[in-house]
Amino acid sequence: MSERVIGVLASGRGSNLQSIIDHIEGGYIKNARIGVVISDRASAYALERARRHGIEAVYINPHAYPTKEEYEQKVLEVLEEHGVELVLLAGYMRIVGDTLLDAYEGRMLNIHPALLPAFRGLHAQRQALEYGVKVAGCTVHFVDREVDHGPIIIQRCVEVREDDTEETLSARILEQEHKIYPEAVRLYLEGKLKIEGRRVRVLE
Ligand code: GRF
Predict the structure, then answer these.
(1) Contact 113, 141 (CB under 8 A)
(2) Between 201 and which of 29, 41, 61, 194 could a Cys-Cys bridge form, CB atoms 3.0 to 4.6 Å apart?
(3) What is the second-level CATH architecture of the domain 1-104?
(4) What top-level class would CATH report for the domain 111-204?
(5) What is the model's pLDDT at position 36?
(6) Res. 124 pLDDT band, cuts 50 70 90
(7) Is the pLDDT assigned to residue 1 strictly greater than 80?
(8) What integer best gives the mean pLDDT of the chain?
């Protein structure tokens, strides 16, 4: 069977990217490789992580394109050039538009550091602390046309402690992110995820 090709879009430090790389290299995610990592930020450490593992790292400057459509058309071109089947958003700080979704809806996943539908958008962990919830967590979901909204694949809870700060809570959530993203990718690649409306059934 030929290897499945994953593409990753990342804007920052890339610890979730690293976790996917490690789970491929360690054999947990089988018969797959990351074909390309694309970033909208030249300084994203995710690009460096990719290079260190011999993965092609491409910076695409959104400001070099007159419209979002043209920027996304370029991203799409690079994904397709590399034969990408599954796209993972891993700390990608842009709202995905129609150009990418027309091509990849149902084949694009995101990880969010909250138990959706609570605390969508930026600074989810801070939002959770400020709201006063006692349980926080993270979510892997399919990407749809609304931000942090598509059908949910896996969620994992973490407790919120009395003395938590945004940093300590984020760190505890991140540890779980690094587990559930590879799990979701593996399930996807094994063909075990079936989307039924908003529900994702995990087939045995
Ligand atoms: C993670 O918390 C992820 O849930 C959110 O952005 C952060 C990215 O971190 N979407 P990293 O770049 O993967 O380290």
Answers:
(1) no
(2) 194
(3) 3-Layer(aba) Sandwich (3.40)
(4) alpha beta
(5) 99
(6) very high
(7) no
(8) 98
Residue 119 in tokens: 């605390």
pLDDT of residue 204: 86
Measured in Å, residue 38 CA sits from the centre of ligand 1 at 15
Pocket of ligand 1 (CB under 6 A): 10, 12-16, 90-91, 111-113, 174, 177
Instruction: Answer yes or no: are the C-beta atoms of 148 and 110 closer than 8 Å.
Output: yes
Separation of CA 1 and ligand 1 centre (Å): 32
Residues of the chain with CATH 3.40.50.170: 1-104, 111-204
Q: What is the mean pLDDT of residues 18-30?
A: 98
Round to whole Å and give the CA distance between 46 and 83: 20
Residue 150 near residue 142 (C-beta atoms within 8 A): yes
Report the pLDDT value the prediction gives residue 75, as an integer from 0 to 100.
Answer: 99
Q: Please state the atom number of ligand 1 nearest to the C-alpha of residue 177.
A: 4
